[in-house]
Amino acid sequence: MSRAEQLSPGPRKATYADLEAADPLLVAEIIDGELVTHPRPVPKHAAAASYLGAEILDAFGRGRSGPGGWIILDEPELHLGPDVIVPDIAGWRKERLSALPDRAYFDIAPDWVCEVISPSTERYDRNAKRRIYAEAGVKHMWLLDPRAELLETFALANGRWIVGPTFDNAAEVRAEPFDAIAFPLTILWPLDPAPDTQNAQ
């Protein structure tokens, strides 16, 4: 290897300024030094995230249909070491997050995250982001796939993800850390997609 090759810098790592300059119509994250952008979710993805968030918020955020004790938020910006991550939904136990920060992001790792899988995010959700959440000490992770209509659950033990139950439309969801309540997965798909008349012809 020549001296010039030894001294040549590696790829430039993305900065927060790069993230701020991203198209505001895109979701932007910094993952392993790379600026990653993807489009806003399609309606079935957005509906699934909203309905799941509402179910958990009612029971664990507001405490109306469950025990309360949590802060539940949609798409919070998380600063986890050098990474800037935006999960679809995240939750903190109130004893760990007693007040909301006065800045635009959180640097306290959540106790639970849920990523809603889409074609543009699945590679990151299942690989780099899952590793980053484990390194940050997030205790529980759910992966919700509206296309397959499946919910996968994971729990962190000794720095590694342990696969928990997977739920489909035939099974009632009761999963840690929200196993004080149960709900049918079908409530997350409130409407069938409209028929594609162009492809039907």
TrEMBL record:
This is Uma2 family endonuclease. Residues 16-176 form the Putative restriction endonuclease domain. The keyword Transmembrane helix does not apply. Keywords: Endonuclease, Hydrolase, Nuclease. The lineage of its organism: Bacteria, Pseudomonadati, Pseudomonadota, Alphaproteobacteria, Hyphomicrobiales. One of its GO terms (molecular function) is endonuclease activity. The keyword Nucleus does not apply.
